[in-house]
C-alpha cells in the first residue's frame, strides 16, 4: 500500500501496526486498489463488505475472518520420492469494536493434526495433546485511545518488530520469533502514529497460553519508523527477552535479542520494495544475522509478481568442536519466486517456488478466502 501513498497501517486496519481486521476504509481500499475486479467508485460496493454484505456490522464494529488452504510440493531426492501435501493453514474469525475511547479486539480459530508443531501450539487455548482439534486465539486485547494518534493496549498482541508480512515462514520472522501465526505475546503496548512517525513499544509479560511458566519470555519489543516521503519509510526494531527455559531450544536462563533496520518503498504505483536486516543472538549461540529483500511488480491491478531473497546465519553453537555450517556460523541463502492474484473481492490465489540452500525445491499454492 505504500506505493499508493498509504504508509500508516492504522488507516486500513484496526490494529495501528497492521494485520487482521480491516476498517471500513480498508475494505474500500481493498476493493479499489488491491482487487482486479474493483472499480473507481466513491465508496465500497456491497459485495466487498463483511460476508459479502449479507450481515451489516453494527456501528463502530469491524468483523472479519480468513480461511487459508495450502498445497505443498516437495521435490524428489535420490532416496526420497516427491511428496504432495495439502491442509487448512488458517481457519480464523476476528473482530474489533470501539466504545468511546475504549477498543476491544480478538480472534478465534481452530486447527487440527499439528502434533509436534511448537509454533502453532503457542496460540492454543485448550489442552488437546494429539491429532484432534485445538482452539486458538492469536490475539485479544483491550485498548484505550489516549488521543487520536496514541493507543494503549493490554492483552495478547502481535510483537512490534520488523515488517509485518503474511509470509510467516520467512527466516526473518522464524528466527526472530515475530510472525503473525502464533508468536504473539501477552503484555502492554503503546502505539503512536502521529505525523511522519509510527512507533510501538511493548512490554512483554509472557505467553500465558504456553505452560509451564518457565517457558514464558519476558522483556520488550519495539519498532520506530519515520516517513521520509509519502512512499518511503525507514525504521529500526529491537527485541530482548529472558526465559528460565527456552521453549524451542531448551536452553536454561535463555536471553535472546534481535536488532534491525527496515525499509518500505514504493517508487511507482506498479513497483514496491520491502527490506529488513537483523542482528540475532540467542542463548547457546554466538551472534548471527538474518534479512530479506522483496520486490513486488504489479503490471495490472490485482496481479503481483514477487521476487524475494533471504539470508540466515543463526550464529555458531557455543559447543567445543562445533564447526560452521550454512545457517549456523555461516550464511545460508534462499529465494522465493511468486505470483499473487486478487481476482475478485474476498479471494486471493498465490503460487510460490521456494529454493533454499541445503534443501529440496518446494512449490506452494495457497487459496485464501477472507470475510
Would you write up a description of this structure?
The chain is mainly beta and 371 residues long. It has 3 helices and 19 strands.
Set out the fold topology.
Blueprint: H1 24-34, E1 61-74, E2 83-99, E3 102-112, H2 118-121, E4 133-136, E5 140-147, E6 150-157, H3 171-176, E7 185-192, E8 197-206, E9 218-229, E10 232-245, E11 252-268, E12 271-281, E13 288-300, E14 303-313, E15 325-326, E16 329-330, E17 332-341, E18 347-356, E19 362-370
Task: Tell me what the CATH architecture is.
Answer: Beta Barrel
Strand order of the largest sheet: 1-2-3-5-6-7-8-9-10-11-12-13-14-17-18-19
The gyration radius over C-alpha positions equals 20 Å
User: Total number of β-strand segments?
Assistant: 19
- Report the mean per-residue pLDDT as an integer: 91
Q: State the fourth-level CATH superfamily.
A: Porin
Which of globular, elongated, flat, extended, rod-shaped describes the shape?
globular
Tell me the name of the CATH class.
Mainly Beta
Q: Alpha-carbon distance between the termini?
A: 20 Å
Amino acid at each position: 500500500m505504500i506505493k499508493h501513498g498509504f504508509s500508516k497501517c492504522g488507516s486500513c486496519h484496526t490494529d495501528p501496526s497492521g494485520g487482521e481486521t480491516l476498517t471500513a476504509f480498508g475494505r474500500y481500499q481493498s476493493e479499489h486498489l488491491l482487487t482486479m475486479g474493483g472499480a473507481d467508485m466513491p465508496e465500497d460496493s456491497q459485495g466487498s463488505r463483511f460476508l459479502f454484505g449479507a450481515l451489516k456490522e453494527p456501528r463502530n464494529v469491524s468483523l472479519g475472518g480468513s480461511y487459508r488452504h495450502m498445497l505443498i510440493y516437495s521435490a524428489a531426492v535420490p532416496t526420497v520420492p516427491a511428496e504432495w501435501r495439502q491442509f487448512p493453514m488458517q481457519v480464523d474469525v476476528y473482530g474489533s469494536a470501539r466504545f468511546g475511547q475504549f477498543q476491544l479486539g480478538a480472534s478465534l480459530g481452530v486447527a487440527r493434526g499439528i502434533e509436534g508443531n511448537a509454533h502453532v501450539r503457542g496460540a492454543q487455548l485448550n489442552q488437546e495433546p494429539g491429532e484432534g482439534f485445538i482452539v486458538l486465539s492469536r490475539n485479544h486485547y483491550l485498548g484505550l485511545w489516549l488521543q487520536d494518534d496514541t493507543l494503549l493496549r493490554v492483552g495478547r498482541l502481535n510483537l512490534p518488530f520488523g515488517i509485518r508480512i503474511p509470509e510467516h515462514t520467512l527466516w526473518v520472522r522464524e528466527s526472530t520469533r515475530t510472525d503473525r501465526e502464533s508468536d504473539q505475546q501477552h503484555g502492554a503496548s503503546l502505539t503512536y502514529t502521529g505525523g511522519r512517525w509510527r512507533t510501538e513499544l511493548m512490554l512483554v509479560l509472557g505467553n500465558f497460553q504456553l505452560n509451564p511458566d518457565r517457558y514464558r519470555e519476558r522483556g520488550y519489543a519495539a519498532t520506530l519508523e519515520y516517513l521520509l516521503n509519502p512512499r518511503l519509510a525507514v525504521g529500526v526494531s529491537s527485541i530482548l527477552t529472558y526465559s528460565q527455559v527456552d521453549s524451542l531450544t531448551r536452553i536454561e536462563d535463555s536471553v535472546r535479542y534481535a536488532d534491525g533496520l527496515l525499509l518500505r518503498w514504493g517508487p511507482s504505483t506498479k513497483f514496491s520494495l520491502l527490506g529488513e536486516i537483523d542482528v540475532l543472538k540467542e542463548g547457546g549461540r554466538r551472534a548471527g544475522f538474518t534479512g530479506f529483500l522483496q520486490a513486488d511488480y504489479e503490471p495490472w491491478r490485482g496481479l503481483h509478481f514477487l521476487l524475494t531473497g533471504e539470508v540466515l546465519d543463526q550464529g555458531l553453537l557455543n559447543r567445543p568442536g562445533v564447526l560452521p555450517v550454512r545457517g549456523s556460523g555461516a550464511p545460508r541463502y534462499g529465494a522465493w519466486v511468486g505470483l499473487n492474484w486478487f481476482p475478485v473481492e474476498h479471494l486471493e490465489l498465490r503460487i510460490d517456488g521456494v529454493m533454499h540452500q541445503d534443501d529440496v525445491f518446494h512449490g506452494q499454492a495457497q487459496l485464501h478466502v477472507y470475510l
